[in-house]
Amino acid sequence: MTRRQTEVLGAIREFIVAEGVAPTIRELAEAVGAAAMTTYELLVALEVKGWIRRHRYTARGIELLGEVPDISSLDEIDLLRLRVDIEQRLDAIRGK
Question: Which letter, b or e, does each residue of 45-63 get, where b requires 16 or more Cβ atoms within 10 Å of its Cβ?
């Protein structure tokens, strides 16, 4: 997971905790300081990796799948475990 994707996941989580609903793409873009199209592309990547589910054609249709990692507090071993977890999710999506 890239640094930017982690920022987006954190922003989604924080918004849901604060507001009780998921952010719109515009709200999310503003929160992470990115263009709406860039934010959309990050959301697509996160969905492919299995971190979120997007409910298309639904306002505020972003759903978190599982616990969002806070990588700032992880040591090297935890980061390695996170990477293995991400790779396993990708393999499952790809059907390996």
Answer: bbbebbbbebeeeeeeebe
CATH of the domain at 59: 1.10.10.10
Instruction: Name, in order, each residue with C-beta under 8 angstroms of 51's C-beta and a sequence gap of 6 or more.
Output: 1, 5, 9, 64, 65, 66, 68, 89
pTM higher than the cut 0.85:
no
**Domains identified in the chain, total number:** 1
CB 55 within 8 A of CB 19: no
Report the 10 Å Cβ neighbour count for 13.
15
Q: What are the structure tokens assigned to 4, written together? A: 């930017």
Per-residue tokens: 86 = 């991400």
pLDDT tens sequence for the chain (96 residues): 788 898 899 899 888 888 889 999 999 999 999 999 999 999 999 999 889 999 988 889 999 987 665 656 667 777 677 777 767 766 776 676
